[in-house]
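Margin note from the TA: students keep mixing up input and output lines. Inputs are the sequences; the output is the structure of the whole complex. Example:
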Amino acid sequence: MSFSSSSTGRGGAIGGAAFSPLYKQIKALLVQSLHAGEWKPGESIPSELDLAARFQVSQGTVRKAIDELAAENLLIRRQGKGTFVATHHEAQVRYRFLRLTPDNPENTQRAQSTILECSRQKATQEIARLLEIRTGDALIYIKRLMNLGNRPSVIDEIWLPADVFKGLTSEVLIHNKGPLYGLFETKFGVSMIRAEEKIRAIAANAQVADFLNVSEGFPLLQVDRVSYTYGDRPMEIRRGLYLTDQYHYRNSLN
Amino acid sequence: MSFSSSSTGRGGAIGGAAFSPLYKQIKALLVQSLHAGEWKPGESIPSELDLAARFQVSQGTVRKAIDELAAENLLIRRQGKGTFVATHHEAQVRYRFLRLTPDNPENTQRAQSTILECSRQKATQEIARLLEIRTGDALIYIKRLMNLGNRPSVIDEIWLPADVFKGLTSEVLIHNKGPLYGLFETKFGVSMIRAEEKIRAIAANAQVADFLNVSEGFPLLQVDRVSYTYGDRPMEIRRGLYLTDQYHYRNSLN
DNA sequence: TAGTGGTCTAGACCACGTT
DNA sequence: ACGTGGTCTAGACCACTAG
């Protein structure tokens, strides 16, 4: 295929004329296939040469598209084996989105969660805004307690759009082993690929203090998260309260 | 230059025989030049073709080396202009390593800092370990109060190796406009390129509460940071206490 | 041995910024 | 018009994994 500006080929803009390189267009097509479920989490995608033939471009162009998707953790490259769709199942012990780490690395964090509640709610204005749905739309609400190293350490409140997570009940949650995001992939076809968090220090209220075995007013980390699937669609709101006297939230700055 | 395994070319291992691609070797040479100060923060480095000639490799190989350095924020590419050494000066308003953001984005955070203390200390065992120096080595200790939006919001304590930051006094700090890391680049030739943070929720003690205009016991974010220069050498320890009732620490997960 | 991703090259042309 | 980074191609060969 020849290379030219946006008026040519896939993804040409209608009138804006924003230049979009070929590999970006290929990348968008790959994401589209991922979103459509053509290749599922954990599976391998076709080889670079196969994709090059399919899209009628050179291997190098496919390569660059895959490179970016691998950098964004949508795909995982394995030399000699192939390129695989990222999954929250493999990360198993090391929860991909949980940045809580023991101060003392010897304490292997055996995570274990207890469902405290699983009910239906209607979306408040705030949650509707974040999930890009309408106020009053049906939500599934989950409240759970997580133990790290046999000690209650995290309380999570989770809000999900009910239409997408139809059939998500307390029973399903209790039977689930491993990360919640793994369940979302397997049972509901929702892959979480990115999240934004806002972190604050707050004081534990009476109820929370009771669950976490601390006194009322004890300082906790409040982590407000919005998780996104393919195409930057928000799919989950989560508020986590972390006990950070023996754990900390780790972060890298570049 | 031909392409072969580690026994060939620059960077060949002595006996371990770990394979190192050419572009990784070029990358290491570039970092070496950056560290040596051949190109200073804000300046441009030679063009890709010049570097290709200098290292006797193809432009594509130099390109891949620069790509990775740009991804790590050591270099900044600007189409049509050149490739520049990253600096903490340009980031000016948007402090590169400060993740504190107003809950209400309208509140433009006018940062302004007051030096509370600048003295000499000897390294404790803990700080010596983190800075990879010896216990008892000379340190410069800085304590400062930062105002965001005309409200005291952050208290920082900073520990620096005295031999590297010779001549860093209270006067120098007070006269400095802009980010501290900009001062480090200009006056001491130290470029901070990466940092690791550990975040916890703690209760304000009496002294801190007084500085931040809150009551004792008020929940604060405690951010412990280690900053690194070229070659992963730790060069700064920092403990920040953040008031997060109107601000939050933002983070992206991938 | 075959297939996959990973590296390297050489050359052509495009987009952007400056002169 | 020129120089810079950005995109694309085609082809060769290397490294890793599996059958």
